[in-house]
From TrEMBL:
Organism placement in taxonomy: Bacteria, Bacillati, Bacillota, Bacilli, Bacillales
Keywords from the named record: Hydrolase
Keyword Hydrolase included in the entry's annotation: yes
UniProt protein name: Alpha/beta hydrolase
Keyword Nucleotide-binding: no
Amino acid sequence: MSEWVRYKYATVQGLSVFYREAGSPSNPALVLLHGFPSSSHMFRELLPLLADRFYLIAPDYPGFGYSNMPSISDFSYTFEQFSLIIEQLLDQLSIPKFILYCHDYGGPVGFRLAVRHPHRVRGFIIQNSVVNFEGLGTPFDVFKALWKHPDARTQQEFAATVTSFDFTKKQYFTGACYPERVSPDGPYMDQMFLNRPGNQEIQVALGYDYRKNVEQYPIWQQYLRTYQPPVLVVWGRNDFIFTLKGAEFFERELKCVATHLLCGGHFVLEEASYVTAMLIKNFFDSTCTDVFNTKLEFPVR
């Protein structure tokens, strides 16, 4: 039964936070942090494949998926706040140490958590998420315009672009090597949540806050150089949102790192969940990081 996915809710900061759970709590914990515009739904095929070796927690951020969606006047939609929500959820679940799986928006959430608690992080899986400015692709032009002039016009342009169904579908299908493997459920489900009244304002707030992630890049880079966590990079090589320079940074700066450029786009798990699961198991059973047989310890700052 440990391979079954369980669907649960927890109350964090007064909000109902949805998360998917699989595997035994006696296994190493792996926390899966989703990207935009998705939710824990993006990990639906991966979770059962990893449940025999890991204890898996895949939450939805507030405003995404099945978690509560308070208005922007009632909740601070920032990546810092998301990271605090995840931290408090893990504390509630009594998970002291964990591996972080970071996709897209999951990177800014995960690296904030890691910088605050470096001794709790046993490693990373990076799927198309960056810690360097060179990793930002052309779609970030609309973000940069918002950062420069956050007026009503640029906010409207940002919302019209990033919350459109055309852009949602593009994220799933552009660069896909086997588009027939990409289920239409993902983009349609994501768009359903994006279309909720008030959600455009939430996405604008997060888009503007993303500038603070860029400001944090030097801090995250220094964290990686100092603590040298094991990092597995599993990257959709045809991604149009993040460039390959984002993937190359980890390979260049870290000692215990493996990079796999998979044939696919931004949501490469739609095509390669099985391959990704095998790569994760092999990496975390390797000589530089064996979470199955040893306890990794990192110095406390």
